[in-house]
Amino acid sequence: MNDPLTGAATPDDWHHAEFSFAEAGEVANVPFDTLYSWHRLMRAMDFKIGDKRRGQWWFSGHEMYVLSLLGALYCLDFPIGAKQIRGALNFADEDAGPDGVWYMMSDTDLAATMVDAPKIFWAVCRIVRRAQAALDLEYAERKEAENA
Prior knowledge:
The protein is 53% helix and 13% strand. By secondary structure, it is of the alpha+beta class. The strands form 2 sheets. The protein has a 3-stranded antiparallel β-sheet with strand order 1-3-2. Strand 4 (101-105) and strand 5 form a beta hairpin.
């Protein structure tokens, strides 16, 4: 699957947890406390999201995509609970990738909204690729300094 804007494929390290809690919150456009609440709820629902290393949580591009889908709902003041979290996780895990609009119902089924998932998906992919390029550059500079 290729990015319609740049033609680039999904990043190779899409499932590698390399983004901090703060970075994930910034990408998803939600406050720290909100992200923390969602993360606790996901873990209470037995969804493994994030990787805890040295006392800190790290997220992959794929997990940031899930959080960004929820962030889009959050920006619309749409209430987010277990149903919305499960919906975002299931939508993000579809083998075909984001192929259109993600429809979400409220817990009472009295309200619905839709999210343009491909825009969010490719935006997160671009962030992951840029971060990886920056890490690669930093690694190359370190190696060059060691060899000098």
